Amino acid sequence: MFWQQLINGITLGSTYALIALGYTMVYGIIQLINFAHGEIYMIGAFVGVVAVTVFQLNIFIALFVAMTVCIIIGVSVERIAYKPLRRSTRLAPLISAIGVSIFLQTLMTLIAGPQAVGFPQVINDQLYHIGSVTVSKVQVIILILASALMVGLQLIIKYLRIGKAMRAASEDYDTASLMGINVNRVISFTFALGSALAAAGGVMVGMYFNSIHPLMGVMAGTKAFCAAVLGGIGSIPGAMLGGLFLGVAEVGGVALGYGGYRDAIAFTLLILVLLFKPTGLLGRPIQRKV
Amino acid sequence: MNKKLSALITMLVFSLVILAGCGSSGSSDDTIKIGFLGAKTGGHASYGLETLKGMKMAEEDINAAGGLLGKNVAIVETDHGSKNSEASTVTDKLINNDKVVAIVGDPTTGLTKIAAPIAQDNQVVLLSAGAVGTGVVEIGDYIFRDTLLDALAAPAVTKYCAEELDWKKVALITSVNNDYSVSLSNIFRDALKKYNVEIVTEQQVKDGDTNFSAQVTNLTDQEFDGIVFTGYYTEGGLLMKEVRKQGLKQVMVGGDGLLSPVLWEMGEAAVESSMVYTGFAPDPNTDNEKTKAFIDKYKANNGNKLPDMFSAQGYDAVMLIAEAI
Q1: Interface with B, mutate which of A106, A143, A210 (most B CBs under 10 A)
Q2: Hey, are the CB atoms on B247 and A8 less than 8 Å from each other?
Q3: For this UniProt entry, which segments traverse the membrane (chain A) (predicted)?
């Protein structure tokens, strides 16, 4: 029972982590909370459904298509809505982000209709029994894919030139640009990475919960944002840890029999962590940002 | 002196305008407006849209037969997007902007309970086509409903499960942010006790949830004959999918909140042999001429689909109000 719930929690948490990575990377570089990020995740899920049902694609190809489409959307959003505001007050791009978020929600409601859309069953529901624990094939796939994507991200950031540039830009944006780093390209690349991960998260959630909705990005986005803050916003391992923590906490609340309060439990934990560690679990000390 | 005089004249002119305004909005219109309060979008749009279809048919029928008191009936449509927070604004708009004589809606208990006190205070008739829960008409003497009450239907279903299907133990699942579900669960709890069916576990979900894995895992180590789920269709379908995914074989029983084609779309094979009760089921061989005419007309307008309880209740609601006028 305990292990079963833990697996439920980790599966949920790894989807939060994928979205949280997008928030944290963007924040790390341009100190912007990209509130439209949850909508990128939602669009990813819808593109996944269209790819699977209309074009009859294999789920893994569908995943790739969704990630590509979302990279294009994510980067265009940055170009259109954030870039012109980069040198203005911190609040301006934030408001612009909220605007983009509402625009994308409404657009998708108009295209797809307000009802929840069922995600077709793309992977047969094979169950694996390990001791007293039952794991479904979908869960296994989500766990493997999410881990692979996160490891891949770490490799990109650690070893590729563009990854180094990202780290430099997040240390100090202006100095990085003085050193000859093309920060515009770095920012575009960051949005591309974040959007791809969010799209993957969207398709996986659709696959796992069998239902997607034009407003699904709102709650998922809020939770992933909290996960990013919990782990320490700006920190990539922090976002992963924060996502897992939040997922397990949420499922833990239901396991104890308080299904109605599960969000309350998860967010109370968030407040507690932040009270004792204001920069989040793996956040950098505040002084360095000043 | 001059100033005072002009001020007086201005005041007089203003009050005349206001008075004239009152006059024109009340009687010189040649339509009788009936408001539709419900969801065209959002989580329970299926109820709202069906209710509205029924109301539109009633509007056509009445106007084709010469209208009411020599005036045409017009339905004023609104949409609160299935949001509790919008229900009062929409009700207020219907009463104060559109000046409707009566409101039909909301099809759900929860939103009716939000709208009803506003209608009562403004002395506008509110007839809910679908509020099946408890404590609705008790709100005031302007509040009515035309539907099958949970308090009658749920015990009957429980009796069937206990006596015909021989259920001894059930799992009860409630959607805690849904007034309808909470009140239906209370009714089921009493009824189950009465027929000696034990509730082995109670789980809580929320409207809008898509992840039920943890609640269903809580069910897996219990023994029970059936699942009583008191929420709506979207969550019902997804819940049953998760139940099957985790290898449980029990069927689901629930109220008319589960009644929508969306239940099948969401749940697919997982909702097979689920049981739902309803206040109206289309019977093409019915003896009742009016019902037959209603079914035929609905089918003609909606690509041969059969009407459901909500369209029937919406139609009846407008007809009832017309009768009263």
Answers
A1: A210
A2: no
A3: 6-26, 61-82, 94-118, 138-157, 186-209, 264-283
* Structure tokens belonging to residue A65: 């298509």
Q: Where are the alpha helices (DSSP H) in chain A?
A: 2-30, 37-53, 59-77, 91-112, 137-159, 161-171, 173-178, 183-209, 216-231, 236-255, 262-276
CATH number of the domain encompassing residue B314? 3.40.50.2300
Q: Residue B306 sits in which domain range?
A: 28-143+286-324
| Domain termination site, one of B257, B276, B295 | B276
With respect to residue B5, please indicate whether it lies within any of the assigned structural domains.
Answer: no
In a domain, B180, yes or no: yes
Q: For A14-23, B273-282, B309-318, which range has the lowest pLDDT when averaged over its residues?
A: B273-282
Whether residue B24 is predicted with pLDDT greater than 50 in this model: the reply is no
Hunting for tokens 């409707």 — which residue is that?
Answer: B100
| Chain A residues closer than 8 Å to B210 by CB | 116, 205, 209-211, 213, 216
In chain B, the number of structural domains is: 2
One domain, residues B167 and B108: no
The residue assigned the tokens 């948490």 is A13
- How remote is the C-alpha of B272 from its chain's centroid? 24
Among chain B residues, CA nearest to A109: B41
B65 and B125 in a common domain: yes
Which positions in chain A touch B206 (Cβ < 8 Å)? 259-260
Instruction: Count other Cβ atoms within 10 Å, centred on residue A103.
Output: 14
Q: B234, A211: Cβ pair inside 8 Å?
A: yes
3-state secondary structure (DSSP) of residue A163: helix
Asked which of B258, B276, B294 is the last residue of a domain, the reply is B276
pLDDT tens, per residue, chain A with 290 residues: 788 888 889 988 998 998 998 888 888 888 888 889 999 999 999 999 999 888 888 888 999 999 999 999 999 999 999 888 888 888 898 899 999 999 999 999 888 877 778 888 777 777 788 777 778 888 888 889 888 988 888 899 889 999 889 888 888 888 888 988 888 889 999 999 999 999 999 998 888 888 888 888 888 888 888 888 888 888 888 888 999 999 998 888 888 877 778 788 878 888 888 888 888 888 766 555 44
Q: CA A251, CA A231: separation in Å to the nearest integer? A: 18
Instruction: Looking at the structure, tell me whether residues B233 and B123 fall in a common domain.
Output: no
Residue B244 resides in a domain: yes
SS3 of A124, please?
coil
Query: Is B300's pLDDT higher than 90?
Result: no
Shortest Cα–Cα distance, A211 to chain B (Å): 7
Residue B6 belongs to some domain of the structure:
no
Q: Are residues B121 and B220 in the same domain?
A: no
